[in-house]
Write a structure and sequence with these properties.
The complex is a heterodimer of chains A (97) and B (517). Chain A has 97 residues and is mostly helical. Chain A is built from four helices and no strands. In chain A, helix 2 runs antiparallel to helix 4 and helix 3 packs antiparallel against helix 4. The N and C termini of chain A lie far apart (53 Å). The model of chain A has no long low-confidence stretch (mean pLDDT 93). Chain B is mainly α. Chain B has three domains: 77 residues; 243 residues, no CATH class; 181 residues, TPP-binding domain (Rossmann fold), CATH 3.40.50. Helix content of chain B is 62%, strand content 6%. In chain B, strands 3-2-1-4-5-6 form a six-stranded parallel β-sheet. In chain B, helix 17 links the parallel strand 2 and strand 3. In chain B, helix 4 runs parallel beside helix 10. The longest helix of chain B is centred in the first third of the chain and has 32 residues. Classes of the chains: A mainly alpha (97), B mainly alpha (517). At the A-B interface, helix 1, helix 2, helix 3 and helix 4 of A face helix 1, helix 2, helix 3, helix 4 and helix 10 of B.
């Protein structure tokens, strides 16, 4: 199996898993669901880190590409840190009695 | 086992934890733990990545430092009433990050090609185009959603200084970036397309209205142009300038798609942009061949699509209608003065007297509660009534507020237990046993015309049937129409009392009146 077909398989199966579990989230928690899933979409940080940390000796090294990746690291980190923190803040309010 | 396998196994663990995070969000009791698992998964994925190679750490440490600081301050400072703006803005950062990663990967790959490496394969090319296209629509669309929710885009009134800085600063930056990069492309057809796109974005962000003639045509044209440029980029990926032209044209599409959407349709758009930010991340995963990006991205994509569907259903509209249609009064909309001939206005004392003798009270909050920041005052009134043995519940319409679950978060902030928040389908069958229904800053979602008049713009939209309660108290500042722009006969019904006031002041006055009796 080629790597592309494997990646598409992963993609399609993950869509189905997402569909199954998210249908069970009650409307009360839809705002935390959005901010929480938003934090998860900050996973782009992985790609940003790999490209921002390229060594100068690497054939892929390019200063413009690196600065773009640096800005991407900042954006994705805002998404991740801000997203998980604000979701936690909201969910604590739902938890207390 | 080699390093690559260990990294991939940690990615798998992270993916499983992300799934558990979303699964545990199904109940308020487990949700906090779920969110912590999600954060742990992110840390694991980052550590596994950084441990898998040798890096130049400068930008990595600096980027994470700056991003963490901004993200943490924003998350701690934001008011719960401003959650829609915050989520809108964060969606944009996600989309922006995907664009930059895809662009950076493209440049880096063809830099290496220049040094004798193999060109990227078809998968990488197509994924780069998708990532740039979806990411750019998300980035610019989210900025518009943020600006409309924070009330500095498409408004006629005077702006605060911070709003002016963001509004004019963004337009200036887009225009300047467009001209600078466009000129560096030497007036080729590409440079003209790029400059025109960026200047159009800059201009549209300065508009004081959210509609202009030819909007739907522009939506279609920019979508076609974006796809065409995308195909050109797949055929000739070494021409990296094409990537930026694609981002510019997709940006026009993002702006024009979001611009015409306001008020009650906002929850749909926020959910849709949430979905896009996930799909953009998944596309980026195909660019850099990374499974954890694909899994996490598609989970978020699925989540956003489900929420979009729920919101559309709650308004009885299709997604196409929200994105391309217009909503507003039709020719045969009844005249407001005629409808409101028999409106009865009541004071806090009169409302308090009605509540005194009630056994079951239902509160229906809307966006007005968020604007007035009335959630704490509402809770105080509800607590007072409950101490007198009156049953109090809250009926939440799915599209009340400006994002899915907006009302629930505000009431949770005010310590209202979530068991008291009832969904529309749960409360409607028992609405005729309700003594007093208090409508606080909601309008279209309680308009009985949706049930009775098939020619109305909101015909068929599911509503909360407050008109079936014995008495309805509507707290509103004036008789102005809701987003649909049509009068609401509920306000003039025999069993309705209009309490004209700001939401918070109304609740405080009501509490004082209740205490006096």
């Amino acid at each position: 199996m080629s790597s592309l077909v494997m990646l598409i398989t992963v993609f399609v199966l993950a869509l189905f898993v997402g569909n199954e579990i998210i249908t069970k989230v009650p409307p009360t928690l839809h705002t935390p669901l959005m901010s929480g899933s938003n934090a998860i979409s900050g996973i782009t940080i992985i790609g940003a880190l790999i490209l921002a940390g390229v060594l100068e000796s690497d054939p892929q090294f390019n200063q413009v590409a690196k600065i773009m990746a640096f800005v991407a690291v900042i954006f994705a980190t805002i998404n991740v840190v801000g997203g998980f923190l604000v979701t936690g803040r909201m969910l604590k309010m739902f938890q207390r009695k | 086992m080699d390093m690559q396998n260990i990294t991939n196994i940690v990615y798998l663990v992270a993916a499983v934890l992300f799934i558990l995070d979303l699964k545990m969000l199904a109940h308020p009791r487990t949700a906090v733990r779920g969110n912590q698992l999600g954060a742990l998964a992110m840390v694991l994925a980052i550590v596994a990545t950084l441990a898998s190679g040798r890096w130049d750490w400068t930008y990595i440490i600096l980027g994470i430092g700056i991003g963490s600081l901004i993200g943490a301050v924003a998350a701690i400072k934001v008011k719960m009433t401003s959650m829609p703006e915050m989520v809108g803005l964060f969606n944009g950062f996600g989309g922006g990050a995907s664009v930059l990663v895809a662009g950076s990967a493209l440049i880096a790959t063809f830099n290496a090609v220049g040094a004798g490496a193999d060109a990227g394969d078809m998968q990488m090319k197509v994924a780069t185009v998708l990532s740039g296209l979806i990411g750019s629509v998300t980035f610019f669309g989210s900025y518009v959603a943020f600006g409309k929710l924070a009330e500095f885009l498409c408004v006629k009134w005077k702006l605060h200084n911070w709003q002016k800085i963001i509004k004019y600063g963004s337009s200036l930056a887009v225009a300047a970036g467009g001209i600078w990069y466009g000129l560096s492309l030497d007036f080729s057809p590409l440079s003209i397309v790029f400059m025109v796109s960026m200047l159009m974005i800059a201009a549209m962000l300065l508009l004081k209205k959210d509609r202009f003639p030819g909007m739907n045509l522009l939506k279609t044209l920019s979508a076609i142009a974006a796809v065409a440029i995308g195909v050109m980029l797949v055929l000739d990926p070494s021409n990296t300038a094409l990537f930026w032209v694609l981002v510019g044209v997709a940006g026009v599409l993002g702006v024009v798609l979001t611009l015409s959407i306001g008020g009650a349709d906002m929850p749909v758009v926020i959910a849709l942009l949430n979905s896009y930010s996930g799909l953009a991340a998944a596309a980026t995963g195909f660019v850099i061949n990374n499974t954890v990006l694909i899994i996490a991205g598609s989970l978020v994509g699925a989540s956003g699509i489900i929420l979009t569907k729920i919101m559309c259903k709650a308004m009885n509209r299709s997604l196409a209608n929200v994105l391309f249609g217009t909503m507003g009064p039709t020719a045969d909309t009844p005249d407001a003065d005629e409808v409101y001939k028999t409106v009865k206005s009541a004071s806090a004392d009169e409302v308090a007297m009605t509540l005194e003798v009630a056994q079951r009270v239902v509160i229906v909050p809307g966006y007005g509660m968020a604007v007035a920041q009335a959630q704490h005052a509402v809770r105080d009134v509800a607590n007072f009534l409950e101490d007198k043995g009156i049953e109090v519940e809250y009926a939440i319409h799915p599209v009340a507020g400006r994002m899915p679950g907006h009302m629930n978060v505000l009431l949770a902030e005010a310590d209202v237990p979530y068991e008291k928040l009832k969904e529309m389908d749960e409360i409607n069958p028992t609405m005729d046993q309700v003594d007093v229904a208090i409508v606080l800053g909601a309008n279209d979602v309680v308009n009985p015309v949706a049930r009775t008049d098939p020619s109305s713009p909101i015909a068929g939209m599911p509503i909360i049937d407050v008109d079936k309660a014995r008495t309805v108290v509507v707290i509103k500042r004036s008789l102005s129409p809701g987003f649909a722009g049509i009068p609401n006969p509920l306000f003039a019904a025999d069993n309705t009392l209009m309490f004209f006031s700001d939401g918070k002041k109304a609740m405080l006055d009501l509490l004082a009146a209740l205490k006096e009796q």
